[in-house]
Amino acid sequence: MKMKQAYMVLALAFAAGGAAAATTDFSSGTQGWQGTQPADGNGYSAIDTSLGNDAPAYRTVINNFGITFANSTNAEFVRDYTATSAVTFGIDVLTQQVSYFGQDVTRDLVLELRDYDNAGNGLPYTSVWYTIGTLDASVGGWQHFSVTIGDTSAGGLPSGWGGYGAEDAVGNPFLPADRTFASVLAGVDEIAFTTYKPGFAYGFTDFDVAVDNISVSAVPEPGTYAMLLAGLGLVGAAARRRRG
């Protein structure tokens, strides 16, 4: 009986720790992720099985102002992020080319959480965004970028985060006064990893960029760790009694 109770505590701990977790490694298709598609047919966004990061990965090769990898259909990624108190977003990136008129350049990669249901001010959506990394072909190889939101109930923007949904007289974006960081997180309709950084504009650029292992995971509560330790303790005690 004690062993059964111990395994039940462990199961509850792992369930709590795994709540709100989602990962796309492209081994089962795109799972709703879409890259920028060329309007003229010159370039592509598609799954590529040759890139060596536990292939497959999702690759965009295109000449455009910027690129975006976005998901607006998969409920594991498009949801209320305030349902957990803290959450981590992660992505693996392979930058093979970012060039502007033949010159190698870099581009910031932004994580943007977009709410289309509460848009205003003549803009398509309200969002909060964070520069999660830099696309730089000179680095070589796969890189992992991530950011953790430590408090999804925050009203103001955490350090490093920006807001979009209104603009000042010169076009600088900001979060509208009637929205908060938490209110945007509560109604995310699209999650995007993009070089279209709010408030910035770029010329046509050649991109060859692949992404993989896109993940969202809840940060376990302190109580979850306590539950896990309690379960492990019960399993150990039960095992010792059996040996005795």
TrEMBL record:
It comes from the Bacteria. It holds the Pfam family PEP-CTERM. The keyword Ion transport does not apply. Residues 218-242 form the Ice-binding protein C-terminal domain. Transmembrane segments: none annotated. InterPro entries: Ice-binding_C. NCBIfam families: PEP_CTERM (TIGR02595), PEPxxWA-CTERM (NF035944). This is PEPxxWA-CTERM sorting domain-containing protein. It comes from Pseudoduganella dura.
